[in-house]
Amino acid sequence: MDLTPLVPSGRQVIERYGPSGFRVSAVIWRCPVLVFPDLTLRWAATDAASVTWDSLLPVVEHGGVQILLLGLGKRIEGLAAGLRPALRQAGIVLEPMDTGAACRTYSVLLAEDRGVAAALIPPV
Description:
The protein has a single domain, classed as Hypothetical Protein Mth938, Chain: A (3-Layer(aba) Sandwich), CATH 3.40.1230.10. It is 24% helix and 30% strand. It is built from three helices and eight strands. The protein has a five-stranded mixed sheet, with helices on both faces.
């Protein structure tokens, strides 16, 4: 099912993902990215160990994010202790998953106009 027609215009749509990066709203990103409904940014994290409060601070500062989908590549690895409670304190629920699942879930929640963002590491 193609969800793209259900997404309001002007939104950042994840069109493709792979080991070399992402295509978001016709722009190719050859790096990890933070995708918000209105903006996509380069992200410094490269693996689960580099996902920290500081690396996710742009998500908190952006505002309006209630659900953060964390795409960790091909498999889910452990995250820094205290990261999930710290984000919850900021009003954000963290959902770690593989990158493919994060991209697909982002599209569904974006189509539902939910307060979603995705922090994505290419699946290598």
